[in-house]
């Protein structure tokens, strides 16, 4: 009965959306004519407009207003067109306390009302009342509205799947059917982009998405638990609820690489929001150090070197330089640096006269809170202001350059690279090569210590425009990196990751030290239900990671296949036999290796066979359908219908991490191959 009711409502609401699109089209046409008329009026009359430009200004403002109005209408038209594909996905029949009849709420990606100010026919999934759909089954239920907590009872709850405007199915929903729908949704083939999850948000996910109270929210989520989707849906929720003072330009996502950025880039636009800025923290650090060194290694350079030349001494040195202990050593060095770095001498120039004692007093007392390499500039400005006030004349640009040079000479050096060499020598490490700027290439172990030193010596710009920071793959950030992030982003944060996927020889739980770094309470939420892999794949991955507390969605599939090969050609024959995407109906498959050299070689060999291959390296920007070849560390966060892991028999310290990450990328089929050459 309800199925037919849902279809009737779909027909009714589709007609109303189409009518609204027609109205918007007419309004857009009229707006375009107005813009054209304004242009014509301006060019016909601009010579007669008054000399002060008031009429000209008014015309320009009116034109700008009309253009902006048209832009908003175009956005509305785009949203309505998308809504036609699937106007709603849920329904709640809710009886308020004290009422007899149930009120019906249909829920979709966005609000829809036939006219502004009218009661919506469809409610946005982020609206307060939509919480009923995600948090309750039949029976007593409540939600928090602007007027207070609304209590009552859910008489029934329905879930729909609509595609291309046609009803695919309608279920009266309880927990069991939710799981059936989840299996149906997650059992479909992998797409080239992450799916939005508004139709299948689970109760524990909904609590995270609608969390507005915690400034620092940390999500420890198992592979496939939906943590990235939840974080993005949380951003969409906050943009919807705090639209008066939070815009998409106020949000930054620190993501691992460009391919992952592409993989998730459509989620916010699908949810009715503009996209947000994304970048890697390594790229951010490189830009900040561009004035000090010509190039920096990134995390992937370090990983490749550790896999090619595993050296416990080098790894220990890397770990030490990112630790809380090293931050303490840097602070000890900075306390001594003031005396080592300075060579005070008297200043005399065109009436500017300061003794060595005067300068020492200004440097150590008046400007003691100014960063060390900016402090002499502050002393100079003080002296120049004093001179210009007393003499009643300003120094010329040439004179200021001469004065600047005199003050700068009181530093033994202002070169941060040289000062960093003093630091690591002070800490007992080997110095970096003393070389000209063009040849300064910084190894990864020194990137963040040098960035920390730069900020301490020159000051740091707090990015006030960023009001919400999302940090993905939290387990791959060091203590020192979090210290720097806390200094430059004084805003709310959503931090997410999986300690089992640490890009290191051992797992790292950042929650051991995060509360010590942030000066506000850190709220931790654990998501230990995996939705991605079949039970067979998830259990196989669990044996590698030793993670035993996972809940699994009851979705079965093919057993994991393990096989040994004595030649690359044999291995590739088997891969191509299994990845006949036309026969299997799958969309995506991946060959995942340890190193970029192995990935590059396999890609070249497949291309020589005439195969169409998508190769993902650190410079790749897009994620595509078909067969992909990449490394385990670049596959993080992605998912494929079929995965072929290629490993060697030698026991490398990174093997377990790499195999776990590889295994958890697979939606339906996993093949773990060992190559013994």
Topology summary:
Elements lengths: L1 H44 L8 H32 L4 E7 L6 E6 L13 E3 L6 H5 L3 E7 L2 E16 L2 E7 L2 H12 L16 H7 L6 E6 L5 H15 L9 E4 L3 H7 L2 H4 L6 E3 L1 H8 L6 E2 L2 H10 L3 H10 L2 H18 L5 E3 L2 E3 L1 H11 L5 H20 L5 H12 L7 H11 L14 E2 L1 H15 L9 E4 L7 H10 L3 E6 L16 H4 L4 E6 L1 E2 L4 H11 L5 E2 L8 E5 L2 H11 L2 H4 L3 E6 L2 H13 L4 E3 L10 E6 H4 L4 E9 L6 H9 L2 E10 L2
Parallel strand pairs: 2-3, 7-15, 7-16, 8-9, 8-14, 10-13, 14-15, 17-18, 19-24, 20-22, 20-23, 21-22, 23-24
Antiparallel strand pairs: 1-2, 1-5, 4-5, 5-6, 11-12
Shape: globular
Largest sheet: 6 strands, mixed
**Helix content range:** 40-55%
Q: Unreliable runs, pLDDT <50, ≥5 residues?
A: none
Average residue pLDDT: 89
Query: What's the count of strands?
Result: 24
**Termini separation (Å)?**
64 Å
The assembly state of the depicted protein chains is: single chain
**Radius of gyration, Cα only, in angstroms?**
31 Å
Q: How many DSSP H or I helices?
A: 25
Structural class: alpha/beta
Please state roughly what percent of the residues sit in beta strands, choosing from under 5%, 5-15%, 15-25%, 25-35%, 35-45% or over 45%.
15-25%
């Amino acid at each position: 009965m309800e199925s037919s009711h849902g279809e009737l409502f779909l027909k009714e609401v589709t007609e109303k959306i189409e009518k609204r699109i027609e109205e918007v089209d007419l309004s857009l046409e009229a707006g375009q004519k107005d813009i054209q008329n304004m242009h014509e009026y301006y060019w016909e009359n601009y010579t007669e407009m008054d000399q002060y430009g008031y009429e000209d200004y008014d015309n320009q403002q009116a034109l700008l207003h009309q253009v902006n109005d048209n832009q908003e209408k175009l956005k509305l038209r785009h949203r309505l067109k998308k809504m036609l594909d699937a106007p709603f996905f849920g329904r709640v029949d809710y009886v308020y306390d004290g009422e007899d009849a149930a009120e019906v709420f249909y829920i979709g990606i966005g609000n829809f009302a036939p006219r502004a100010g009218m009661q919506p026919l469809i409610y946005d999934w982020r609206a307060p009342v939509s919480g009923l759909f995600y948090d309750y089954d039949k029976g007593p239920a409540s939600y928090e509205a602007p007027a207070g907590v609304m209590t009552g009872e859910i008489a029934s709850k329905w879930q729909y799947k609509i595609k291309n405007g046609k009803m695919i199915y309608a279920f009266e929903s309880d927990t069991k059917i939710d799981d059936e729908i989840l299996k149906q949704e997650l059992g479909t083939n992998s797409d080239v982009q992450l799916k939005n999850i508004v139709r299948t948000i689970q109760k524990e996910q909904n609590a995270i998405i609608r969390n507005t109270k915690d400034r620092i929210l940390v999500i420890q989520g198992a592979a496939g638990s939906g943590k990235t989707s939840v974080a993005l849906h949380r951003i969409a929720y906050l943009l919807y609820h705090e639209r008066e003072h939070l815009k998409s330009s106020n949000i930054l996502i620190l993501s691992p690489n460009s391919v992952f950025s592409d993989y998730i880039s459509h989620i916010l636009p699908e949810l009715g929001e503009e996209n947000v800025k994304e970048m890697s923290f390594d790229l951010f650090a490189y830009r900040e150090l561009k004035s000090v060194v010509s190039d920096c290694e990134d995390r992937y350079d370090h990983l490749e070197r550790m896999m090619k030349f595993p050296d416990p001494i080098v790894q220990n040195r890397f770990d030490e330089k990112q630790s809380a202990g090293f931050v303490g050593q840097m602070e000890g060095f900075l306390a001594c640096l003031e005396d080592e770095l300075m060579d005070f001498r008297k200043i005399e120039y065109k009436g500017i006269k300061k003794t060595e004692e005067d300068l020492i007093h200004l440097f150590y007392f008046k400007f003691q809170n100014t960063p060390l390499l900016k402090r002499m500039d502050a002393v100079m400005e003080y002296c120049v202001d004093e001179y210009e006030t007393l003499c009643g004349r300003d120094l010329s640009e040439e004179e200021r350059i001469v004065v600047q040079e005199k003050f700068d000479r009181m530093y033994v050096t202002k070169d941060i690279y040289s000062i960093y060499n003093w630091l690591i020598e002070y800490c007992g490490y080997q110095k970096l090569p003393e070389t000209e700027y063009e040849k300064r290439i910084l190894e990864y172990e020194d990137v963040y210590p040098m960035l920390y030193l730069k900020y301490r010596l020159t000051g740091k710009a707090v990015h006030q425009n960023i009001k919400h920071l999302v940090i993905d793959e939290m387990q791959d950030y060091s203590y020192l990196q979090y210290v720097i992030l806390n200094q430059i982003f004084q805003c709310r944060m959503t931090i997410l990751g999986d300690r089992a996927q640490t890009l290191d020889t051992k797992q790292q739980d950042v929650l051991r030290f995060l509360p010590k770094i942030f000066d506000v309470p850190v709220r931790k939420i654990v998501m230990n239900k995996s939705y991605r892999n079949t039970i067979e794949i998830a259990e196989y991955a669990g044996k590698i990671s030793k993670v035993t507390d996972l809940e699994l969605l009851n979705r079965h599939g093919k057993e994991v296949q393990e096989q040994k090969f004595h030649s690359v050609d044999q291995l590739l024959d088997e891969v191509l036999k299994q990845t006949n995407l036309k026969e299997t109906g799958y969309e995506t498959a991946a060959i995942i290796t340890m190193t970029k050299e192995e990935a590059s070689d396999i890609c070249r060999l497949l291309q020589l066979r005439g195969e169409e291959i998508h190769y993902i390296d650190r410079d790749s920007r897009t994620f595509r359908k078909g067969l992909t070849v990449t490394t385990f560390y670049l596959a993080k966060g992605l998912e494929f219908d079929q995965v072929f892991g290629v490993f060697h028999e030698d026991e490398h310290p990174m093997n377990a991490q790499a195999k776990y990450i590889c295994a958890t990328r697979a939606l339906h089929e996993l093949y773990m191959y060992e190559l013994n050459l």
